[in-house]
Amino acid sequence: VDAARARRPAPPGKKPKGTRAKKGWLFLPDMPDRPELAQTSALVYAVRLGRPTTVRALLDAHVPLLNAQDAWGYTPVCYALHLLAKERDSVVAAAMADMLLERRPLVNLRGGVERPTIMAPVVSALISGDAQRLAYLVTRCVASLNTAYVYLPDVPAYFTGLWERTASQTQSRVPPLHLAVMHRKLDLVKLTCDLGANPNLYGQPLDAEKVRAKRKKEYDAECEVIMAAAQEIAENDGKLRWQSKARLGVMAQLKKLKKAIASIEIPGWSKPHPWVTPLHLAARYGLPDICLLLVQRGALVNGGGAA
């Protein structure tokens, strides 16, 4: 909130600090002062500047701005909860968030796994560990815990120092239940599961489609090698059976060795696997109570789709 107030316009007769130059390059239009405020409504502007009295006035006036999105697709409640997650002890941020949540705004953003964002209200509530507002979002505002994905390296980028060693290295987009496990609190994980979180949803890298296409290509190549060896054995009536088996065995062993080397995780050098489930995270942290809870709630021990 203090940083937002510092960005307020300067008093009359004085120039505001830190404004961008309006002059663009040759034959190009002038640049806007604040491109991040594109298509910003008055309610979003008041929330981002930390003005609770203005937020209350706009809400009492029944102005249809509660669910109005800016150019980035975010609503006032997204900015309010994000600001509260960054400054958990801020009375101003808590007041603005409660005023907006009282009106039951729309809290489900579009995109899901294809567009992970740290600005989703349920993500902000779980990052701050705010169990009361998380329950209110799900029960009163119909928030979904299975469609709001977040890119893990964004957490330490926007919230300095939070889960730095784990989140910054795991380049994966995960659902909110993973964030609850990263808090290492049994009550928060239990609440998230009670609110409808699916324990079998798993994290994926940003290039998941390319990875799947690569695996399919490797699988097709292996099938071609096997089919060619079988056809050669059939044509030669068993004369080259031992040669084909030996050649096929060497190729299979080399591919297995290549996969084994690529899957080795060296602490401090290699990055954790992006295909991770909440059960994987609980096991990585060494949390037997949370592991047992997830298994009781239906988590697949073999990893499910992430295996």
Can you characterise this structure?
This protein is mainly alpha-helical. The chain folds into 2 domains: 37-206 and 274-297, Ankyrin repeat-containing domain (Serine Threonine Protein Phosphatase 5, Tetratricopeptide repeat, Alpha Horseshoe), CATH 1.25.40.20; 208-236 and 243-265. The chain has 15 helices and 2 strands. The chain has helices spanning 2-6, 42-48, 52-60, 76-86, 91-102, 121-127, 131-139, 154-158, 164-167, 176-182, 186-194, 208-235, 241-262, 278-285, 288-296, and strands at 150-151, 173-174. It starts with a helix and ends in an 11-residue tail after the last helix. The model has no long low-confidence stretch (mean pLDDT 81).
Task: Provide the descriptors you would attach to this structure in a database record.
repeat, Ankyrin_rpt-contain_sf, two-stranded antiparallel sheet, ANK repeat, 307 residues, mainly alpha
Overall morphology: elongated
Q: Name the CATH superfamily assignment of the largest domain.
A: Ankyrin repeat-containing domain
Strand tally: 2
| Order of neighbouring strands in the sheet with most strands | 1-2
